[in-house]
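Recall that a protein's primary structure is simply its ordered list of amino acids. Everything else, from secondary elements to tertiary packing, is in principle encoded there. The following example makes that idea concrete.
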Amino acid sequence: MFPTIGHLIHLRLPIPTLGVFVALAFSAAYYTFLLELKRRQVVDHPKRLMDKMLIVCGIMGLIGAAFFSSLEQPQLFAYNGLNYYGALIVGSTTYFIIAARHGIRFATAADIGSPGMMLAYGIGRLGCHL
C-alpha cells in the first residue's frame, strides 16, 4: 500500500496518492472527451463545453461518491472515504443531463463519453488500490 507519493517513489513527499490519481483521471477524461467532441463536431465550441462539464461533473461525482459512501456506513459526521460507484453514477448522469441541454442526443453523448469515462474510472481505481 502506498498512501502517499513519497511511499511510491521512496522520497519524503506527503502528497496523497489517491488525490494525485483523481487529478490524473480528471485530466485524462478532459483530454479524451475534448478529442471526441472535436472529432464528432457536435458543438461549436467544444473546449468551452468541456470546461463546464469537467467542473460540474467532477463536483457532482465527488458529492455522489461521498453520498453513496454515507449510505454504506451511516455514521453521523464521519468521513469514511469515497464510493467509486457513486462517483460513476452521479458523474455520468450529470454528464448526460448537460449533454442533453446542449442538444446532444443520448446515443451520441454515450459514444463521445464512453472512452473518457472508462479511462478516468480505471485511473481513479488505480489510486484506490495504491
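The chain has five helices and no strands. The chain has a mean pLDDT of 88.
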